[in-house]
């Protein structure tokens, strides 16, 4: 089982996450320190500081299997974020293979989901379904929980191709997965995706009801989502 670093992340604030991972790397023993440094590189990439991210990875000595997987995975993310999807693909494929050999299911599925983001468009759905199949057969819950994100990506692939019926089916499955996982904020996003797809299929009244329910929940939380408002504007809400 890989080191659980998810609790350190705030993807809305990569700069703060970077500092927390630096602090963790400075105060913990190996190999967790190296695992933390790979997340420093990831946080730098999210700030578009790609050269700094690569420099962090260059300095690491990946002595254990998880470190080697994480270095390949984050190298690939840096390359993809900088616009080099072709260079990122072999990194993600190497990470997936190494993770599979080491029994690191969560990292394996993460890497497979990244492969699906960088393959040629004609390969995309097949790669997404391969990642989904691996997630669904995993024994580790964290690996299985990747199904929600992968299903959303499958939905977007169908929507981009103009097949909103297939997109809706994927988004509904993603919503079921989000409800199982239990993250309220991400579940609201999944509900928005279902409503968005319903609108594209002409089911405007149901879509409007779902978006209004989302706005009511957000109002009760003191939060605001401009995408909900945008959809309600289109739907006459």
UniProtKB/TrEMBL annotation:
Matching InterPro entries: TPR-like_helical_dom_sf (IPR011990)
Q: Which Pfam families match?
A: TPR_12 (PF13424)
Quote the Gene3D superfamilies the UniProt record gives.
Answer: Tetratricopeptide repeat domain
Q: What is this protein called?
A: Tetratricopeptide repeat protein
């Amino acid at each position: 089982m890989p080191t659980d670093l998810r609790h350190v992340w705030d993807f809305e604030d990569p700069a703060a996450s970077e500092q927390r991972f630096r602090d963790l790397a400075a105060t913990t023993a190996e190999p967790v320190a190296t695992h933390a440094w790979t997340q420093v590189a990831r946080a730098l990439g999210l700030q578009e500081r790609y050269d700094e991210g690569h420099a962090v990875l260059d300095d690491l000595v990946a002595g254990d299997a998880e470190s080697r997987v994480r270095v390949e995975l984050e190298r690939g993310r840096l390359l993809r974020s900088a616009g080099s999807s072709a260079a990122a693909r072999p990194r993600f494929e190497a990470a997936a293979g190494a993770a599979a050999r080491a029994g690191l299911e969560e990292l394996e599925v993460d890497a497979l989901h990244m492969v699906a983001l960088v393959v040629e468009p004609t390969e995309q759905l097949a790669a997404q379904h391969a990642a989904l199949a691996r997630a669904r057969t995993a024994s580790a819950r964290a690996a299985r929980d990747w199904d929600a994100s992968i299903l959303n990506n499958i939905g977007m692939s169908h929507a981009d191709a103009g097949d909103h019926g297939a997109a809706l089916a994927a988004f509904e499955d993603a919503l079921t997965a989000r409800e199982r996982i239990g993250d309220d904020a991400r579940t609201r996003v999944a509900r928005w995706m279902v409503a968005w797809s319903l609108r594209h299929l002409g089911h405007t009244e149901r879509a409007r009801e779902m978006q209004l329910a989302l706005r009511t929940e957000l109002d009760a939380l003191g939060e605001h989502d401009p995408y909900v408002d945008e959809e309600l504007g289109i739907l006459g809400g």
